[in-house]
Design a protein that fits this description.
4-stranded parallel beta sheet; 42% helix; globular; 12 helices; Rossmann fold; 3-stranded mixed beta sheet; single chain; 309 residues
């Protein structure tokens, strides 16, 4: 195993004074700065969790991090990079369900961390069970995605694939994808060390990660109600429709595809902007041009998992 020597752009940049890359060249290691003086009991407990997670990762010969560029996988990647240096690899498995903007974001955050970033490809649409879009769609997707990452890890001689499942996820309702994580043998350091979603975001702030407050972003197939078949054309028009919302500056949104009816969900604090007549006209015209027969705005606002069990 090589000595951690990544020159991370995060070095000496965070508000909490977290310094990556180990005790070298006069810098403290992350294990030390995760125990800062003068923090409250809650923060001290959180930093102990993070330090234990780093020590756990450092004992491995190498890891591949299932990397989306979201806050969970970014925290895992940052700590893995500090623990293992060049023996930690962030890998993004891309398919038709991943928006292009998310891949671009993942590349940017990997560069920000200073971790080696690789991209592999696969297609969930090769699996008829996924296409049927039953209540285990996430299970089928996660099984294929992690399977592809294990193949990549094997090619690199690495046994451990990490994901970003955190300690809040098992309590978040219907999550069949978690069964896939367990079945394929992926390691979830945030879950194993009891790090909850709010704590993940706090660690991201301590590490100076730009994605600390990034909204959760599920794959594009989550916009299609359970029981309606997933197709490449539907995924494409959903991605293009959401690109419009992003261009207008919305941060929390979904375009649900009810087999030809587009139902736009916008975060409650942004809903007033969505009621603007100019936006309504542009959205209606643009989405109809994409192939939607009807375009609607959900007045209840964004709701996580509103078209899934």
């Amino acid at each position: 195993m090589s000595t951690p020597m990544l020159e991370s752009p995060l070095l000496r940049r965070s508000s909490a004074g977290v310094i990556l890359n180990g005790a070298r060249d006069g810098y403290e290691s992350i294990a030390w700065v995760f125990h800062p003086r003068g923090v409250d009991g809650g923060m001290e407990a959180l930093h102990r969790k993070a330090s234990s997670m780093r020590d756990d990762l450092a004992r491995r010969d190498g890891v591949v991090v299932a990397f989306s560029g979201g806050v969970d996988s970014s925290v895992v990647a940052a700590i893995a990079a500090d623990a293992l240096g060049d023996d930690a690899i962030a890998c993004t498995a891309i398919s038709e369900t991943l928006p292009a903007s998310e891949l671009a974001g993942a590349k940017r955050v990997a560069a920000e961390i200073g971790i080696l970033h690789e991209v592999v490809r696969f297609s969930e649409l090769d699996d008829p069970n996924f296409v049927e879009n039953d209540d285990r769609r996430c299970y089928h997707c996660r099984t294929m995605r992690l399977g592809r990452l294990f193949d990549f890890a094997s090619e690199r001689g690495i046994e451990t694939v990490c994901d970003g499942t955190n300690a809040s996820d098992p309590q978040a309702g219907h999550r069949p994808g978690l069964a896939a994580v367990e079945e394929v043998g992926a390691y979830s350091p945030l879950l194993q060390h009891g790090v909850t979603k709010p704590e993940v975001r706090q660690l991201a702030r301590d590490l100076g990660l730009s994605v600390a407050d990034k909204p959760s972003m599920a794959c594009l197939s989550s916009r299609i109600p359970t029981g309606i078949r997933v197709t490449a054309s539907k995924l494409d028009r959903i991605e293009r429709a959401e690109r419009l919302l992003r261009t207008w500056g919305f941060e929390q949104f979904r375009v649900r595809d009810h087999d030809g009816l587009a139902r736009i969900e916008i975060g409650a604090d942004e809903l007033t902007t969505a009621l603007d007549s100019e936006f309504a006209e542009v959205a209606d015209t643009y989405l109809r041009d994409l192939g939607f027969e009807h375009v609607s705005l959900d007045l209840r606002g964004y709701e996580m998992g509103s078209v899934s069990p």
